[in-house]
Amino acid sequence: MPSSQIVAAKPETPEGIMMSRQEELPILPVVPLQDMLRRYMDFVEPFLKGQEVEEFRKENLRLLCSKATVSHSKRKLQHLLSVDISYTRHCRVIFRGTADSQNAASLEAIKMAALVVCLDGGLADAGPYEVAWPRQVCKGGPNAEYGANRWWDKPVQVIVGEDGGSALLYDHTAFDGTVMARVTNHCYDY
């Protein structure tokens, strides 16, 4: 076929085929730099030794004092655990202050965890598996049935469904592809 007769295929939507389902995906807010650095420090601290902790803290302080700005998303995913961080801190203070000392120990263990395992029930979505499972992983089901089973302040969530489906949901700010590939392989091995 002569090159003058080659016609490029038109995308199915104005934005292209890859963007055709974009509106169905949850939109999470961009985490403010201060909160992101605090979360990152909480995540890496168990892996650091002695002087490394102090060096990371100094670097975090340098980044906080920088003039970098990030525009924030106006839309927020309405899940129980994705509320304003100050509200989450307030709830944790209340739990720690109760007579049950197990609450404080449990919250500290959760805070220091490098990742969490979320055990979900069966698929709540009657749609095709290729659509239903990603929807359950990313937002806890079509109506967030398992939304309270997600720990949005953790950088890695290993999600295991009752039907045997599994996935890793992770915060891209703390990982690059190489690191996440090794973490994924490790999680699937165990």
TrEMBL record:
<keyword id="KW-0808">Transferase</keyword>
<dbReference type="InterPro" id="IPR023213">
    <property type="entry name" value="CAT-like_dom_sf"/>
</dbReference>
<feature type="domain" description="Choline/carnitine acyltransferase">
    <location>
        <begin position="100"/>
        <end position="188"/>
    </location>
</feature>
<protein>
    <recommendedName>
        <fullName>Choline/carnitine acyltransferase domain-containing protein</fullName>
    </recommendedName>
</protein>
<dbReference type="InterPro" id="IPR039551">
    <property type="entry name" value="Cho/carn_acyl_trans"/>
</dbReference>
<dbReference type="InterPro" id="IPR042231">
    <property type="entry name" value="Cho/carn_acyl_trans_2"/>
</dbReference>
<dbReference type="InterPro" id="IPR000542">
    <property type="entry name" value="Carn_acyl_trans"/>
</dbReference>
<dbReference type="Pfam" id="PF00755">
    <property type="entry name" value="Carn_acyltransf"/>
</dbReference>
<comment type="similarity">
    <text>Belongs to the carnitine/choline acetyltransferase family.</text>
</comment>
<dbReference type="GO" id="GO:0016746">
    <property type="term" value="F:acyltransferase activity"/>
</dbReference>
<keyword id="KW-0012">Acyltransferase</keyword>
